[in-house]
């Protein structure tokens, strides 16, 4: 196999958190605001949350954008940055990151209570999804989260 020509996945969802080190105060809201302006200007699909940002798009564009976030935060005076990045890819279907949240919310709404937790496996061969209540015996590795 020629690894030099191995392609990156076409699309990914990345959740990342830039951690500025050595800032004068514990607050990093100005740095977060600068990164969010960059996200908006990128035109990519993104969502800020309390512990970072989720961004979706072509692999190379997402990685470039995270790199640009590093450069931007360095340019505003932060000398050192550490990042936590979690990246997901799928080859079986296209799915926007907001669809994942909506799916779980719809399951909880159908329960009539947010207190009941469920596990949703990938679709069965017949296309129907299997829903197992937490604690229910399962045989599928997917249903067990493996």
Explain how this protein is built.
With 146 residues, the chain is α+β, with helices and mostly antiparallel strands. It folds into two domains: 8-88, 2-Layer Sandwich (Alpha-Beta Plaits), CATH 3.30.70.930; 97-133, no CATH class. It has helices at residues 29-42, 59-75, 97-111; strands at 11-21, 45-49, 52-58, 80-88, 118-120, 131-133. The strands form two sheets. The chain has a four-stranded antiparallel sheet with strand order 2-3-1-4, with helices on one face. Strand 2 and strand 3 (52-58) form a beta hairpin.
Features:
146 residues, 2 domains, two-stranded antiparallel sheet, 6 strands, 26% strand, Extracellular mutant 15, MTH1187/YkoF-like, UPF0045_domain
Largest sheet: 4 strands, antiparallel
CATH topology of the largest domain: Alpha-Beta Plaits
Taken in chain order, the helices and strands follow as: EHEEHEHEE
The span between the termini is 29 Å
Number of domains: 2
Helix segment tally: 3
Side-by-side strand order of the widest sheet? 2-3-1-4
* Fraction in helix: 25-40%
Instruction: Classify the secondary structure makeup into a structural class.
Output: alpha+beta
Strand content: 25-35%
Which CATH class of the largest domain is shown?
Answer: Alpha Beta
Principal-axis shape equals: flat
CATH architecture of the largest domain: 2-Layer Sandwich
Q: Taking Cα atoms only, what radius of gyration do you get, to the nearest Å? A: 19 Å
Low-confidence stretches: 140-146
* Quaternary structure of the protein: single chain
Mean pLDDT: 84
Question: Can you count the beta strands?
Answer: 6
